[in-house]
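Our platform keeps sequence and structure together, in a single record for each protein. Nothing more is needed to write down the fold, since each code stands for a local backbone conformation. An entry from our holdings is shown next, in its original layout:
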Amino acid sequence: MKIFYGVQGTGNGHITRARVMAKELYAAGFDVTFQFTGRPADKYFDMEVFNGYQVKTGLTFNTHNGQVSYVKTALEASPIRFIRDISSLDLSAYDLVISDFEPVTAWAARRQKKKVLGVGHQYAFGHKIPRAGGDPIAEQVMKYFAPADIGIGLHWHHFGQPILPPIIETPAFPQNTQANKILVYLPFEDPQVVVKLLCPFENFEFHVYSPEPAVSKYPHIVCKQLSRAGFQRDLYDCAGIISNAGFELASESLQLGKKILVKPLHAQMEQISNAEALKQLGYGHTMFDLDDAVIEDWLHNPHAVHVTYPNIAKVIVQWLQDGMPAMDAEFTERVWESVQVLQIQH
């Protein structure tokens, strides 16, 4: 089977999920072409797993100081180029089209009357899950940004809905965790503001990753350039993470039993809803602004949650091999039976 797989590349979470899917799809013998949109071609990194891939401009969201601006997003979009990308994408040679919330692929398939399988967290919003921060614009963006005929929604909990657990790597649980080591990834914030915010907490060691290089004069704050391998090493042995409320990093952190503090992007319904879900489930803490008092309380709170998720990429690939039968409540309940939740202390 030949598959065309479109991935939203604005954030790293979609790409992380696609890496896991790529390994399972290739292992099963599928012929897959990946396309990424949402950032310049030279801003992608650690992409070797995709065996050659293509890049188009697509659409991306404008953010500034931790907030999405829909007005600037609309003004900076290039509709002519977007339509040209859709028109130039020939999907006739492919048996299946998959979109991880990637609009060029989704709309090109719709134009060519090809069925689209949507795989990703955003497709869970078609079901009754925790929602917050919604407005008419956000609701329309979620519905029409990358429409799919069949949507496989992913979330940390089923909430009584026919959705699946996250698609993440499933490494062994860390045996050696550094109790005072904290991983910080706030890519939509000014990194120098983040460094200044963290400087009073000298009893902790912060590893701050950001898209653009930052500088720290404090020995307990180490600033690092984004690197998949380096980030994973620091995530593996840290005690907790401070991040925006993206889905994939929180999923990996739960799998590894890290305590979580998230700051959702303002005016971004998905991230605000993610923060609400973490709060409802008792899986993490939230702050809606860079708040040193909240950070201090969280740093001294040893409670964390370890959630063991199965290899969902393998489950989906097997489902594809089985001919894509109805993913009903019975199917999803069987998957969730293997999920285990354990309360731990760091």
In short: The first strand starts at residue 2 and ends at 8.
